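Suppose a colleague, Dr. K., hands you the sequence of a protein chain of 200 amino acids and asks what its three-dimensional shape might be. Before reaching for any lab equipment, you can write down a predicted structure in token form. Begin with the sequence itself:
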Amino acid sequence: MVQPSGMTYRVLCAAVIFCVLAVSTDAQTAAIKIVIQEGQGAINNIHEHRAKEPVVQVLHEDGEPIAGASVIFQLPDDGPGGAFADNAKMLSVQTDDKGQAIAHGLRPNTIAGKFQIRVTASFHGQTASALVSQINAEPAAAKSNTKLLVILAIVGGAAAAGAAAALGHKGSTSSTTSIGAVTTPPTILLPGNPSITAPH
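The predicted structure, expressed as tokens, is then:
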């Protein structure tokens, strides 16, 4: 049997140690992934300045949650979108014990339309990314309520004018007007839809 020389033996040992370290490093830096739990497809209310805060979970490839991972939520610089606290377009948070991260403080801007929030997670040199799609919209109910208020204001003004006219007629000393043999009652305006009494 041929015995390896001292040099060959040292090379073989180094190769074995390298392989062991490589396997160990791969096990420690296993791939991570992002799971979107809330906020995907949400419709944000522009009129009420409310948005659905995205919630994501960072997991190891085997499904175990990762605590302490860094997560960045990035909003579009222009167009439909929004802002976090202090009008920031970016928010950085750490995952909790369940591997969750929440984009607290998200508010929609006044531009209607679709947009995407880019989510990036990093942990021990491994990174993952995902997109959360949302929509900024002004509900039709809000527009209808505005129109209703305008209509009520107009009707209220007409009713007030009618009431003033009615009070003016009460101050008159004559209750009827005679034309020949025909007596016609006075015209009285009441609040609401004005009407005219037909002659008898």
